[in-house]
Each structure stands twice: as structure tokens, then as C-alpha cells.
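User: Can you fold this complex?
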Amino acid sequence: MSKQTDNSKLLEDKLYPLGHTDDVEYSFTAEKGLTEGLVRKISSLKEEPKWMLEIRLKAYKKYLEMKMPTWGGDLSSIDFDDIRYYIKPKNQEAKTWADVPEAIKNTFEKIGVPEAERETLAGVKSQYDSEVVYGSLKKSLSEKGVIFLSMDEGLREYPEIVKEHFGKVIPMGDNKMAALNTAVWSGGSFVYVPKNVDVGLPLQAYFRINTERAGQFERTLIIAEEDSKMHYIEGCSAPSFSSASLHAAVVEIYVKKNAKVQYSTVQNWFKNVYNLVTKRAKVMENAEMRWVDGNLGSHLTMKYPSCILAGRKAHGEVLSIAWAGAGQHQDTGAKMIHLAPETTSQIISKSISKNGGRATYRGMVHMVPGTWGSRSKVVCDALILDEKSRSDTYPVNKIQENEVVLEHEATVSRIGEEQLLYLMSRGIKAEEASTMIVNGFMEPVVKEIPLEYAVEMNRLVGLEMEGSVG
Amino acid sequence: MTQEKNKMNIKRFKLDKPGEIDLVIPLLASLEEKEVFGVISAVEPGDYKVRVVADHKVPNTFGRIVIKGVVANGARVTVDGMVKIAKGARKTDSFLEMRILLLDKQSSAVAEPKLEIENNEVKASHAATVGKIDEDQLFYLTSRGIDEPGAKKLIVAGFLKEAVGEGDTVTRGR
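Assistant: Here's the predicted assembly.
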């Protein structure tokens, strides 16, 4: 089976130039490069209220002033002038099923992606035809008072709620990519869960009608009112085509008193994508936030889901898996900022690097003065599968209060000879045995992901491991 | 073929005044074994910074870094410890440990246990803890008639003991 990287290069060469030139009907395609005029145009096309336009313009100015980070992955090849900052969804339908590389089709087959989804994932269709599924879902949600819309619709229909919460967990000046997103955001989800409501089933980004798949600058805002409970899922483990090579999404979450939110992501963008994401939750008294983050694809991902533990006894968790194969750099981790007493956090990071890939854990635990009774535990384990690959760990633990406990541990290892021998001596082939061991290594995080995704992920690992023993 | 086992090379350092210590421990020859034990006794107000790097460049080396610190009276300590294992450095065995006791509310610490590993046939791990004196240990001593300040002194001495002692080199704070 040919390697995924070779095919995505082919795909990239064939399609990227084609991507945005065939307009049949009315649709706006931005010129390349970013200008104030474009920011205004985006806002006017969406018919946004004046206050949102003002936020975009302020953010654009900030973006111009700010510098790119000097740490992290190699961002030097991104040509910001060569990017289109606004593409209407229809324009992303760039090719036919016949153009999709065999390798990708095989992956879909092997990991069991339903027929209906394959075309969307491969970039052949930009909209997932989920009318039937979504229709009945919408009814049960509205009975509970749950709002689940695209961010554009959310702004249109609930401007007061958006105005109160937008840009307050991740201010536009937080980092250059957040400023960029705030200026040109489009798409993403708006979720509002009223007090005491338990949504029950996980809300999945793909169910929304009019979802702008492969949205470059998605903006998501989730508000979980007091005592509510919800689970949101983004992405999927099947390889996902994106016409855009730069993704800079922003996700802001409010977890109010006693609420519980889990946000699960499984990302497997094609290997031409730079995935630079800012995700942060503000967690109030006695509330719980859990980020489950699976990074399998992209050329470079820089993403550090964070929790601001602002209320007493708030709890935050990040469970993360990073898979770095040939030509990939996963620079991921977590940030926990303890601002109140008796707050707790847990970070479990499992990374695997193979075929020259580089997996980097970058994390921060900060406990300010006055956070007595707080505890944090960080466990970062890395599996390096061959001598070409690399693993790094850069944790920063800043503790300004003594009545706390911080523990951090990290181990780097490879597939143990004894483990392999144990399995092989029981009749399991070497490749299968390696796959079992890698899946076992990831298990503490994978078990928190809903079953269908977990199954896909495990099968994907199996595919990646094919031909790897030696 | 006879191979002479290198004698364990032990370095110790102590930083007891505000200042900086910057130590790079290169492991350049096969079978080298190096250990570093460091004590940070930050009881005067000020900034104390320790940077240690175990740099494994060739196969078959052993490195162990243990840094223990106590911080009081508003002192601020930063410990930046890095284990680097180069591409060809198979069979490296490296462990880095940093443990910091914050004795009062005014003091603070930044612990950065870092790793950069480019070979997979290695044993590499690290651990870091920051906290205060364990309540149970304190109770154990005070319940045997030792006054609290005395008990704390004993616990701190015991905590630091592993890192203090005779050795080849002692580096003091600048």
C-alpha cells in the first residue's frame, strides 16, 4: 500500500491550484492575502451586527502588530500572503471521487467509514447530507432548550448571548493566531445548554447542516450553564482532506458552577495542513472540564487545550494522544491555570513517533498564590518506534503557593522485546503484536473517546503499523 | 574483549545564595556514567536559578541527575533540567529528578523537567514534585515530643540528604 504522504503530495499538486477557480453560481471567493477591506467584506456578507465588525477590525490590527511565536514547530514555510482567508463552502468541492487516491479509499474501507461519509471526508462534497439524522436530533434538543447551531447562525439568532461571552476566555491579543481567527472567523459551532439540563447524547460537529467542512478559521463557543452536562465531539479519525493549508481555530468554553463538559477531538487532517489551534475553558466553582484530544494528522499541529480553574474546587483534565509519522510534527500539550483554592487538574499525554516523526509535549501548570489545597498530576509517556523518530517534553510548572501538591512524571520508551515475545510466543504475528501494544499504550486516553471513534482510531493505528516491524 | 567500566563520575553542587548555576554534563564516551546531585537551599529572599543538561551523544551511557530544593522567606527558585539523547545514542539510561519543598506561602518555584530524545533504544524518564512538608511526616515527629520547628528541620535535612555529601566537585552559587 503506498504511503499516505506520497499521495497527499500528488493530491496537493493536482488540486490546490484548481481548488477555488470554478465558480458556477454566486459565491464570494476572496483574493489571496488579508486586508482590512476583506475583513469588512466578510462581516457584511454575513450581515453581522456592528459590534462584531468592530471586534474583527480591532483583531485585524492586533494581528498585524503581533509576532509569530519563536517556540514550537517550524512555521517558516507558511506564506501568509498566499492564503485565501474566506472561501464559501461550495468552492471547496474541488474534485470527483475518481480523483481521490487509492490509498485514501483503502483507509476508508479498512477503518469502516460509512459510504455516505467518504465523499465528504475526501473533499468531494463539502456538505454532509445529514438532514434526516439532524432533523430528529434537533427536535429532541429544542425540547430541552439546548441550542446547537453554526456560529454564524448563533450570532444571528442569539446576539446577546454571543456578545456576552465572545472573546472573553480567549481575548484577541492572546496570540497571533487567535487575533487572526477573531478577524476572519467563519463557521464553527455555537452551543448553549441551559441550567440543569443533561444533553444526554454527544453533540457532533458533523451533524450540523450547512457545516463548512475544512473550515480554516472556525470559531466555537460553548456555554454550559449551572448544573448542566454535555459532551461535544469534533473531527474524526478518517483522513480528512482540507483545501486550506492553514487552520487557526479558536474554541472558547464556559463551564459554569457545578456543570460538566467534555470536548473530544480526533483530528486527522491530510499532511499538508498547519493546524494552529487555541482552545480554552473557564471552569467555575465545583465544575469539571475534560478535553480529550487525539492528534493523528496534519503536517504541524500546535495545540494546548487549557483550563482556567477560576472557581473553588474546579477540576480540569486533558487526555491527549499524538501520533507523529513521517513528515509530521505534533507539538501539543495542555495548560492548567489554578486561580482558586482546592482546584485539581490532571494531564495525561501519550505520544507515539514513527518514521522520522516528531512528537513534542508542551505544557504548563501554574498555581498562583492563594490556591491552597490544590493538586495537579501530569503524566507524559512517549513511545518512539524507531531510531529515526524524536520525542520532546517541555513542561513548565510554576508554583507560587506552598499548600499544594504538584507531581509530574514522564517516560520515554519503545516497544519492549519481552512484550513482543510474550505475544508472539502465543501465536500472534509480529505486526499484530506491535499494534496491540501501541493500542494498549494509548488505551487510558482512547477509552474516554466514544466507541465508534475509538474503534476507528484503533484500526487506523493498525494500518499505520502495517509493514512497520523490522 | 575486555571493557573497563568507568568509575562513576559524581558531581555535586549547592546553591545557597541568590544566583545561578549552569551545568552541562556531556556524556561523550561509551560506558560513561555520570551522576549529579544538587541542593538548592533558598532561605534568603532572591532569585535562584539552576540549569542542568545531561547531554548523551554516544551509545551506552548512564546519567542520573537529582536536584532537591527547599525554598523559604519569599525566595524564588527555577530549576531547568534537560535530558538530551542524540540520534546515535542507543542504550542510553538516563533519569532526572527534581523535588522542591516550599516552606511558606511567600516562596515559589518553577520546575521545568525537559526531554529531547532522538533514539528509541533508551531508558529515559524524569519526575518532578513541588509541595510542602508532608503533614504525616510532621505529625510522626511532633507526636514523639519534638517541637514543630525542630521537626521541620529534621525533615528538611532528611529530604536533602540524598543530594548532599562527599563527591568530586562542589560548585557554589555565583
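Chain B touches chain A through 33 residues (CB under 8 Å). The helical segments of chain B are 135-142, 148-161.
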